[in-house]
What we know:
The chain is built from eleven helices and ten strands. Strands 3-2-1-4-5-6 form a six-stranded parallel beta sheet. Strands 7-10-8-9 form a four-stranded antiparallel beta sheet. The protein is elongated. It has about 350 residues and is of the alpha/beta class. Helix 9 runs antiparallel to helix 10.
Amino acid sequence: MKTLDLILHVRSRMRHRRYTKHLSYNLFRRIFNFLVILCVLLGINTAAMMWFEKMNFSDALWLSATTVTTVGYGDFSPSSNEGRIVTVISMYFIAIALMGQIVGEYMDWRSIKTEKLRSGAWEFKDMEQHIQIINTPNIDTESYLDRLLNQVRSTPELKNIPVQLLTRKYPEGIPTSLKRHKLIHRTGEAENSTMLESVQVDKASYIVILARDAFDSISDSLTYDILSRIAEIGTDATIVAEAVNDENRKRLQSAGANVVIRPMRAYPELVVRAMTDPGTEQVMENIFTHDGSRLARVDFDFANTKWADLQCSIIQSNKGTPVAYITVEGKIVIPDSNSMQCSGKGIISLVSDKQTFV
Length: 358
């Protein structure tokens, strides 16, 4: 029963989207047709005022315009029977009613546009040089996206770039917490080339493909399919893709990903660094594991030593690259100058897994 309800729901939404798409087009076409007819009626009435009332063109057009908009300043009016008959027929009986119809149709179009924007069905034709985020995590989606967008907006080179999200997660509209980021929302499936074309991946500056499930390697297959479709469309964007299984990294890179990272939901900064500084994400990933590079604590006493001299001493003694030191009170300090005088009881150093300390 649940499966049947789901199928009926999907079919209902598809019919609704097709209907609203055609309705929007028909409204625009009707408005255009009404405007053409209105202009013809204005032309007829203007010509009648020039012929029967002996007005010049500007006065005749002014009279027609003030009549059809029901403003009626009263500075001009038809005095001949012929002029009055033409005005009653063309303006009162037809044009004024037509004007009301145009306003009504326009309000309907605005209503449909607002609904499409809310539900993510509106296609932005002028998207370019934007950040395109594809997919959303299944768990803790809103919180993760909020932190990710905060990181994007706090990064100088990304601060003013439009961000567009393509997901199936929010068919009824994105949460209020995400609206403050001025996020552009599109509802749809990324495993659809037409949808990828509609979000204009070919014109994006950055494309981020998130794993839907950070613990299920089937997400990598979906990501591979999306990458293949993007490659068929073509793009010069920097593509960052998440890989659940490390064995799939090379496959995703061969499919077009410039950078492949692990899905670390607690650290969205990793995605942003991969976008702006490709390569740094590998060091950051290793820091969270005991493979490759990692942060280690090296205990020893030192006093009144320049940070630059301390760094040189640590590097020469093969104890890694110092990034911070530990004061006598146990406070962690990241020096902001090489000439800074340091005293403490240890350092935090970036080391390889092959380095050991006595």
